[in-house]
Design brief:
Blueprint lengths: L4 H15 L3 H24 L10 H16 L1 E6 L2 E5 L4 H23 L5 H20 L1 H4 L5 E2 L5 E2 L6 E2 L3 H23 L2 H11 L1 H6 L4 H27 L1 E2 L6 H14 L6 H18 L4 H18 L4 H9 L8 H12 L1
Antiparallel strand pairs: 1-2, 3-6, 4-5
Helix pairs in contact: 1-7, 2-7, 2-10, 2-11, 2-12, 3-4, 3-5, 3-10, 4-10, 7-10, 8-10, 8-15, 11-12, 12-13
Length: 345
């Protein structure tokens, strides 16, 4: 029965647009779902490779800007005398372009940043996010700077007469749920593969993993590319849902929100970002619905986060697994290394 619970949960979520008529609640669920997707991508880095990226919001913003620009079309001077002109593309193509752009940037940053570790990697990731934010703010010809890109078209699929529009909230909710499920399946297959076992081995003991022949940089870059692509998908969904994108999308608070979702839910678990995302995505709106002053809302938010971290230091999902003796088993570092080494040979 336990193994069917995730499928039943997804079916329940899929049924929400059929009986939920409140567009405000659907809006909250959509935005929470988008950030859960971004948190799942961060968990692949933080939870399964042990690398804390405090600039992960950069890939979210790159996906949003790239998808918006491709769907709107643009003209920009890349170099003196070199004008690049791109005509508006279909939204589905633009969203794929946003995902690809985030993945390419993830590859480039991964190859560069994983030459260092620890605090140095954190500094590189934060610096990258700040550089991208400054580019979006100051390259007015391309991004409109603080004036923002607006009138971004919504996703439409199909031909004339049989067109499926994702303009209304029930359809957007269904799209976000589909991307979230696809991202979950992709991450699950990756972490349960040979590459995933190597990533976990790196997290547990990088020196020992290297000694048995695991290519540290290759697996870390792989994780970064996949995580960046998923974050880019979340950014593309966000851009075509709110239909306006400005440099504030790169604000540090969004990375902090993703980290909170991952850590409180349980880093290194597949369900952790989902549980943390639901809790800390819906909590602010619940407090607002209770007509609390903004200061009280943030105090309650912070107190709950501190309590979760204090009493459940490994996160909510690991605590539930330990209490009920179910869920994802955590293999020992030595076993992960042996399995990964055998898989290589």
């Amino acid at each position: 029965m336990t193994r069917w619970l995730p499928h039943l949960f997804v079916l329940f979520l899929a049924s929400v647009p059929l009986w939920m008529t409140d567009n405000y609640i659907l809006h909250i669920l959509i935005t929470t779902g988008i950030f859960i997707i971004a948190a799942m991508s961060l968990n692949l880095l933080l939870g399964y490779t042990g690398q804390l990226s405090l600039g992960h919001v950069a890939f979210f913003g790159i996906g949003a800007y790239a998808s918006a620009l491709l769907s709107l079309g643009f003209e920009a001077h890349i170099a003196p005398g070199l004008l690049v002109k791109v005509l508006p593309k279909p939204v589905w193509f633009a969203m794929l372009g946003g995902i690809a752009s985030a993945a390419v940037c993830g590859y480039a940053i991964g190859k560069l940043a994983f030459r260092v570790r620890g605090a140095y990697f954190v500094i590189v990731s934060i610096s990258f996010a700040e550089v991208v934010r400054l580019v979006a703010l100051n390259w007015v010809e391309l991004t409109q700077g603080p004036m923002a890109l607006n009138n971004i078209p919504a996703l439409k699929l199909g031909a004339a007469g049989l067109e499926l529009s994702f303009l209304k909230k029930p359809m957007v909710y269904t799209l976000v749920l589909a991307v979230a499920v696809l991202s979950y399946v992709l991450i699950r297959r990756l972490v349960q593969s040979r590459a995933g076992r190597a990533m976990i081995a790196l997290r547990e003991n990088e020196s020992l993993a290297t000694s048995v022949g695991i290519d540290v940089t290759a697996y870390l870059v792989l994780a970064t590319v996949v995580a960046s692509a998923i974050a880019g998908a979340a950014g593309a969904l966000y851009a075509h849902y709110v239909r306006i994108v400005d440099p504030d999308i790169f604000l540090f608070i969004y990375t902090v929100t993703m980290v909170i979702m991952v850590v409180t839910g349980g880093k290194g678990t597949l369900a952790g970002p989902i549980v943390g995302g639901v809790l800390f995505g819906l909590l602010p709106e619940s407090l607002r619905a209770m007509a609390m002053p903004p200061e009280v809302q943030w105090i309650a938010y912070g107190v709950l986060m501190v309590l979760v971290v204090y009493f459940l230091p490994r996160g909510i999902v690991p605590a539930i697994n330990e209490r009920w003796g179910a869920g994802e088993a955590t293999a020992s570092p030595l076993r992960n290394l042996v399995v990964a080494a055998k898989a290589r040979s």
